[in-house]
Amino acid sequence: MIRTALLLSGLLLTQIATAAEWKVLEPDSRIGFVATYDSIPFQAWFKSYDATIRFSPDKLDESSFDVRIRTASVDSDSPDRDDGMRQREWLAVDKYPEARYHAERFEKITDNHYTAIGKLTVKGISRDVAVNFEWQPQPGGKAWMNAQARLKRGDFNIGTGEWARDETIGFDIAVNASLELASASQ
Amino acid sequence: MVWSAAFKLFHWSTAALILGMFVLGWVAVSYPLSPTKLELFKWHKSVGLLILAWALLRLAWRATHRGPGLPAAMGRYERWAAHLAHAFLYALMIAMPISGWIINSASDFPLKWFGLFRVPQVVGPDKGVQDSAELVHLTLFWTLLLVLVVHVAAALRHHFIRRNDVLRRMLPFTNSGKPEK
User: Fold this and answer.
1) Cβ atoms within 10 Å, residue A145
2) Of A44, B75, B107, B155, which has the most beta carbons under 10 Å away?
3) What pLDDT shows up at residue A18?
4) Residues of B near A (CB-CB distance < 8 A)?
5) Predicted local confidence at residue B181, as pLDDT
6) Which domains does chain A have, with CATH numbers?
7) Which sequence spans correspond to the domains of chain B?
8) What are the 10-residue block averages of pLDDT along chain B, 181 residues in total?
9) Do residue B118 and residue A42 have CB atoms under 8 angstroms apart?
10) Band of the pLDDT at A11, cuts 50, 70, 90?
11) Contact assignment for B35 to A37 by CB distance below 8 Å
């Protein structure tokens, strides 16, 4: 009896201590990046991903992001270019079907603006990446999040061999995400 | 009477550009995906648009300047065939680059003309449009090749069989002003 009560209160405490969990509302959410071709930017989106978002502005210590992206789902509105990006020299989707971002450190910048510091793993290479994001609570237990991060593609061996120069495809990659979230805590 | 220097410049520069395009196009298509392939395509696309602009300029020039005209000895059907072939060549010099421009736009690859300025997209990204335009581009290529063979054969026929000055008067270094006797 006492044990059960302890266990229950323990569970309850865990519930309280943990930041709110959010579910991604897919139709209005996007994760992708902007790269450049001949110094002209183009946008690509990943059509398939899973994002586990635990975030409460007042519980940054308990917050966490875990985003898994199916690299083969890359879509830049150009099947030719997308096929190219799936190849070994670029995202190598056969060998590395998933890219992952995992963050457990958060810092508040200003009201509604935060930075997550986590590990981005692409093509088996993990590096610390800071993601700046805006967090806007919405009515009806929803929230909207807009995030950016800057990468150098060479840091993750994206574009190897002849592509390791930036004559056609630039080195800078701007990752961007816009997520419509619904509270999953109720 | 021979063709003026401007007409000759239009003719031979276009001939050189088109031959270069055949080579560039085939090499670019068959090259494995690499920066070199993209580079080849950039050149192919830039030269293609140059040919388009050049052809339009040339049509304007033709409309305002007289050429030497066809030899008087040519028959009605020969004249008709010559005009048809030339009309085909002009149409292809315009249609071929436009179909390529559509491929480039539909496949959503940005293009800077010889690296200088960005060329606008003529259609939005669309795989279906891209596939159709590629088929058109390839068909026009074979058509152009065929018409060019006819064009060259006709010029050689005029020179070696009919023994008139049709070929000579378009050659780069024939003396203008002096009519052939």
Assistant:
1) 21
2) B107
3) 76
4) 33-36, 38-39, 42, 107-112, 115, 118, 125, 127
5) 41
6) 19-183 (2.40.128.110)
7) 5-170
8) 91 97 95 93 97 98 93 92 96 98 95 95 95 98 97 96 92 64 41
9) no
10) low
11) no
Which residues in chain A are closer than 8 Å to B34, comparing Cβ atoms?
A: 162-163
| Residue for token pair 């436009």 | B98
Q: Are A117 and A64 in contact (CB under 8 A)?
A: no
Predicted ipTM > 0.85? no
- Between A40, A42, A168, which is nearest B118 by CB? A40
Nearest to B108 among A77, A165, A168 (CB): A77
Q: Which two tokens stand for residue B95?
A: 């249609």
Residue in A with minimal Cα distance to B40? A168
β partners of residue A70:
A98
Residue B142: both structure tokens together: 């074979």
Torsion, Cα A74 A76 A82 A85, to 10 degrees, reads: -70
Are A116 and A145 in contact, with CB atoms under 8 Å apart?
no
Buried b (16+ CB within 10 A) or exposed e, B89-99: beebbebbbbb
Residues A63-109 pLDDT 10s: 999 999 999 999 999 999 999 999 999 999 999 999 999 999 999 99
pLDDT of residue B9: 96
pLDDT, tens digit, 9 for 90 and up, residues A12-39: 555 556 789 999 999 999 999 999 999 9
Residues 6 or more apart in contact with residue B95 via CB below 8 angstroms: B140
- Who contacts A76 (Cβ-Cβ below 8 Å, separation ≥6)? A42, A43, A44, A45, A82, A85, B108
What pLDDT does residue B180 have?
45
Nearest to B109 among A78, A87, A167 (CB): A78
| Residue type present at position A63 | S
Nearest residue of A to residue B33, measured between CA atoms: A84
